[in-house]
Amino acid sequence: MIGMQPTSFWRSLKIQGRIIHALFMRELLTRFGRHNIGFLWMFVEPMMFTIGVTILWTALGASHGSDLPIAVFALTGYSAVLLWRNMPGRTIGAVHPNASLMYHRNVRLIDIFLARVLLEGAGATMSFIVLSIFFISVEWIAPPEDVLKVIGGWLMLTWFAIAAALFLGAVSERSELVDKFWHPASYIFFPLSGAAFLVEALPKQMQDIVMIVPIVHCVEFLRDGYFGSHFHAHYDMVYVAEVNLGMTLLALSQVRDIARKLSR
Fold first, then answer.
1. What is the largest CA-CA distance in the chain?
2. What is the structure's pLDDT at 231?
């Protein structure tokens, strides 16, 4: 029996992997369809948003407290916004339209959530990579000074967004108010997310406030990887890891609880 456990685990993991892949493709086709450019909208859509912000900020002559290129702020800031704002938006209220899928024995609630957050994450990540290459090739920004920091910051931000999405997706099944409050709350939360400012440009008291927000640490770390020699970045990635781990455990407990109630 003991010798069979690893085999059984990997077999179950492969089954769940196939299920998530199937749900991912279903979400992809349902959302973007097969017409026009099809699945390319997955990353073209966020690219258009980020480029639009870059053009607008450039036209307005915004400086955001530094002499760094506006394209850097748009790329690192608004790409981050697309992760933490859109992922929960896709999981909130996701159970009802997919309830029929849960009649299949191997489909779990977390599979539905993961398929949706992976789609959002893949789109935002592809947009971030393509725009980085484009901005660098046209010399709007310089190549990253530390690619590992850029990757690390993006992964930590993605972890935070997934944990938030799982938690909000689960609790939205307890109350419809989650859906009503999330969208305005995400806009209110935006000024504190670090998308449009450097921490060092803020007064000391304001710095202490915004550093409570884990997203700010991720964005600062990401920007440190791009142009850390041009400013003093403020971040504590151990703090972010602790918050992300706590959120993940809380989110998984909520998903399990809701899944049990749905299976009754």
1. 68
2. 83
